[in-house]
Amino acid sequence: MTDPMPNTPLNALQDPEITQPARSQWRDVWDQFKHHKGALLGGGFLIFVTLAVLFGDMIWQIDPKKLDIRNKDVRPIYTAIWNSDAKVSWGNPLGTDNLGRDQLAQVIAGGRASMAVGWAAMILTMLIGTTIGVLAGFFKRLDGPLMRFTDLVLSLPILPLLLVAVTLFRQPLRANFGPEMGMFILIVGVIGVTSWMQAARIVRGDILALKEREFVLAARAAGTTSRGIIFRHLLPNVLSPLMVSATLGLATAIITESALSFLGVGFPSDFPTWGKMLADAVPRMQEYPERVMLPGLMISLTVLSVNYLGDGLRDALDPRIRGR
Amino acid sequence: MKMKSTLLGAAVAFALAPAAMAERGSDGHVGVIYWQAPSILSPYLSGGTKDIEASSLVIEPLGRFDENGNMVPFLAREIPTIENGGVAEDLTSITWKLKEGLVWSDGTPFTSADVKFTADYCMHPEGGCAQLSKFEGVESIETPDDLTVVINFKRPQPYPYSAFMGAQSPIIQKAQYENCMGAKAQECTDANFGPIGTGPFMVEEFKPNDVIQYVANPNYRDPAKPAFATLTLKGGGDATGAGRAVMETGEYDIAWNLQLAPDVLAKMEEGGMGKAESAFGTLVERIEMNMTDPSPDLPEGERATVAHPHPILSDIRVRKALSMAIDRELLTEIGYGQAGTPTCNLVPAPEIYASDNTDCLVQDIDGANALLDEAGWTMGSDGVRTKDGMRLSLLYQTSTNAVRQDFQALIKQWWEEIGVETELRNVNASVFFGGDPGSPDTFQKFYADVEMYANNFDGADPQPYLAQYRCGNEPKPSSQWAGENINRFCDPAYDAMIDELAATGELEARAALAKKMNDMLTKDTYTIVPLVNRGRVTGVSNTLGGFKHSTWDSLLWNAADWYRTE
Amino acid sequence: MLTYTIRRLVLSVPTLLFIALIIFLLLQLAPGDPMAQVPLTVPPEVKQKMREALGLGQPIHVQFWKWLVQMFWIEPQVFIDWLTNKSALFGWLPDTNLYTACGPTVEGPCDLRVISWQTRSPVMDIVVQRLPQTLWVVGMAYVVGILIAIPIGIYSAYRQYSVFDQAGTFITMIGFSIPPFFTGPLLIVIFSVQLGWFPFIYDTTHVVDDWDSFVFQLQQMLMPVMVLALQTTAQISRFMRASMLDNLNQDYVRTARAKGLSEAIVVMIHVLRNSMIPVVTVIALGVPAIFGGAIITEVVFSVNGIGQLLITALFANDLPMVLTITFMFAVLIVLFNLIADILYGLLDPRIRYD
């Protein structure tokens, strides 16, 4: 017979004063996150842009597709500061393009498409990539087949793949979801299906190393299920390369969308997106630098914000850094 | 002072000397840039413009078309006509007399046997010759002596100049290609990459799809030409880069086919190194109306076939209204500038064939609205017209190309003003212009209500071009969707005129007939709605002299006459 | 590890054959026609004859079998012949004549190589022709990018949130989110048009044989290399930084420091080695892409490397060319992913595959 466990802790171990109510983990995360200026700025900008592209057209009600040839090539209003002869108009504060479409309205409408495609494609990419990477890294039996499958998808030439996808899926998608929504699904699907491989390889590489670490061994010894090990121990540890992948993936998806419409697989040609605005403006970048700057800045700032947000989140979620 | 001016005078005289008494190769190097890179130097194995034009520096036809579309003898002494006895009165044969003393670049004599061989090479049933249609109707070719070629036709040929005229059918050397007939044609890589020719240049190095280095042909017939010792034809890149290299940085002398917006070209010209020159041919950007129903609800195999007339576009009033709503002046200004003229004609040139049809040039939105009202299409509350529960909604497709997408946007806007709902679609050019019967997106299949592209005809005779719109020549499932009557136009009266044109030899009568046929397709039925007669824009360096811009032949047709002006 | 490598190499043969089959079927399924670039003035009957001359009418399995034979039986023969006859390395071996070229003067049986539909010439010859500029420009950009990226990544992580790190983050993220179709023309406008310093039409016929020609080669390479290196640098430095950050706070780093190891050794050996796994993955994935070329940059600067070859072949629906290039691309992918897997084992001996 052993002594019964003492049901009160020793006095010496007791705190002499009343403890503060326990802080939740998420409270800690938020406290840490608050101190990251970049993350706050980035988050703020993202919320602003998201609201602007979602509701901007209620305030700025010009139709982005409306052509007004007499008002083509209007310069942004600020050009008047140094060039009093410039063709400017308060009706088009950011100017118009070569067919007289209002740039501000285009940025708003284009942002909606680009952000939607960018986020949806990035999330899809990360989901596929992480799933395949984790399965391949963790379960030895799946490693071979899944990685060979990754090799296969990496080797497929993208253009024929796109053309096949369009041939097979455009008509049914258009019939079911309408021309623009159908194209959106097709584009997100195509980008997602063709760009998850890097994430998968990265996650798998990290998991291969992590699963041999002591803490995984300990977890396994404690009887944690595979599912538990993956979600509680492995995934948090591959978060930082995943964040980088996701950030870069967002930028790639926004740009790829414009390349797709160049290949004739994208949205209808009169449907503005940031990537398309940028591509259309490049031949005239000497005369109208604002037309490249505007979408270029929007894409860059969005990506930069996501990057800082990711940095802040990662720092906040890492218990080793937290509280430093 | 006197000494100085004497010296200066001497220097000037020295500097002028090369131009005054030109000598072969004295002007050094000239660079030409094509943003599509040549793949092969044989017009017979590739119909691509880039390949035809790159080979035109080396191999030559009997005669070419100059910048005005006139025929100029090259290897022939003169252009045969009925007047000079070269063409038989009954139009069944043509006799070409070759220049004397011509030699190939390897020094061997050029004879009539080479000309006959060229025809045999192309007409071989297994050769897959891209220029076979140039030899259509040829019964036999005789060579009575080394300098005479007689082509006999199966039927009277009112236009006997398709074979051996222009960049598409140059003469190749019999000795080089003798063993390359038929199926072997595909294997003659050395000959296809380095043809021996009579032209001003010879191939020194050919990197397929990249660059070609030429050197002056030492055996060229004019001892003073070409003025350039070497020529580089660089391929690849894009039109913007090509234009920049000629007009802004001066790295190259000629840039081919600058399909750029007029304001972009104008900006490039400010670079001061060169100019954008345009020349007009027969290339017409047009909207084609689908006369058959492309609805996806129809079973595959009946969609877009003559079995189902188009529910909306079968009414000529709708087609006419769609045409009236378009402002062609504005389209031209936005898309092509100096390099385009608004047109209502399918055959805009040569002058004798061009109809005086100008009705469509004035935009008339009110008229178009009135016409649609009259046709029974009533304006709905959402701005789209309806009739018997059917919306006036069209799918408008074209190939992917910046100018075409601008056109689509503009035309969509005008059509919306007359209550027509338009969905735009653009298809990758390699699919759109490809004839893959499995693809729903080819221009032949026409699974859309209207489509836009450009087409032209070779040389100066529109007969084969107008003959495309014969009943039964439409793309259809039974012909694997091959066919040239894209609109599925069918009118027995028109077919009768095709036959009449084929039997008429007298030029005035042919012209009158061609104009009538042109009007029938355009202003009488609005089957084809021409928009712009597109010129070819070429970037030319300010220091290059002697360049003559012909759209009727290869861009490089008179490379022998080029020289450096500085 | 050795048995693992051998097993993977053996397994890669059926994998590659399967990949080849899938690519072939994909290309067959994709809409497209090698006659797409032939002008509309050429009548459809003539186009049909041209297709037949290219062998398009044959059944699919015959076409695939023909390609397999040409690729795996005839092309190696050509390569061996070249090695023993012409190459400097094996020129001393007795000349072999395994391959009999088909040609105008050849009678009797002959071997047909993989022939491009655009050029009617062997695909491999063109690929070999494209290698110099591809390696000079795309390869060099990749090396330059990695060489810049790794130190940036390490230092940014080591001095997290320093001015250097912030500036590095800012520049690399902007650099990555601005596509080459914008940076390329921007550089051209600045350096070629305004300043007139560099040519922007890449001269593929240029031969480097003395100092001046070397300088010219550097001048014409500079802009495309800059555009491409920017993308590589941005990507790899981000991964490097993130991975270093993960490791810098690990317990073993504290242990190493406590042992009295110098800071340089701690960071450059212990931390770096443990941070390399994601970076190695990304680098290994990027190497085959060098061979795949950089399509947009190549087009903007007319470099005409393998990327341009592939895209023109795709637009011209040149099936043998596309299939061959993509297949070679697949070989490199399989190979470099294997190399990455082996490197994981070397970097972290705890990773076992057997």
Percent helix range of chain B: 25-40%
Helix content of chain A: 55-70%
Largest sheet of chain B: 11 strands, mixed
Total beta-strand segments of chain A:
0
Average of the residue pLDDT scores of chain B: 87
In the CATH hierarchy, what is the architecture of the largest domain in chain B at level 2? 3-Layer(aba) Sandwich
Give a quick account of the main beta sheet of chain A: strands, pairing sense, barrel closure: none
The CATH homologous superfamily of the largest domain in chain B is termed Periplasmic binding protein-like II
Multimeric status of the protein: heterotrimer
Instruction: Pick out the low-confidence regions of chain B.
Output: 1-21
Which of globular, elongated, flat, extended, rod-shaped describes the shape of chain A? globular
CATH fold name of the domain at 102-324 in chain A, please? MetI-like fold
Pfam families (chain A): BPD_transp_1, OppC_N
Main location (chain A): membrane
Transmembrane segments (chain A): 39-62, 116-139, 151-169, 181-203, 242-267, 292-310
Domain ABC transmembrane type-1 (chain A): 111-310
Brief rundown of the structure:
The complex is a heterotrimer of chains A (324), B (566) and C (354). With 324 residues, chain A is mostly helical. Chain A contains 11 helices and no strands.
Task: Please outline the helices and strands.
The complex is a heterotrimer of chains A (324), B (566) and C (354).
Chain A: H1 25-34, H2 37-59, H3 103-138, H4 140-155, H5 158-194, H6 197-210, H7 214-221, H8 226-234, H9 239-262, H10 274-281, H11 289-317
Helix pairs in contact in A: 1-11, 2-3, 2-11, 3-4, 3-5, 3-6, 3-9, 3-10, 6-9, 7-8, 9-10, 9-11, 10-11
Chain B: H1 2-20, E1 29-34, H2 49-55, E2 63-65, E3 71-73, E4 93-97, H3 112-123, E5 138-142, E6 148-153, H4 174-177, H5 189-193, E7 201-207, E8 211-216, E9 230-235, H6 239-247, E10 254-255, H7 262-269, E11 274-289, H8 316-324, H9 328-335, E12 340-342, H10 365-374, E13 378-379, E14 385-387, E15 390-391, E16 393-399, H11 402-417, E17 421-427, H12 429-432, E18 450-455, H13 463-466, H14 492-503, H15 507-521, E19 528-541, E20 544-545, E21 563-564
Parallel strand pairs in B: 1-9, 1-10, 16-17, 16-18
Antiparallel strand pairs in B: 2-3, 4-6, 5-6, 7-8, 8-9, 10-19, 11-18, 11-19, 12-19, 13-14, 14-15, 20-21
Helix pairs in contact in B: 8-10, 14-15
Chain C: H1 2-29, H2 44-53, H3 60-85, H4 123-158, H5 163-177, H6 180-194, H7 211-248, H8 251-258, H9 263-292, H10 295-300, H11 306-315, H12 319-347
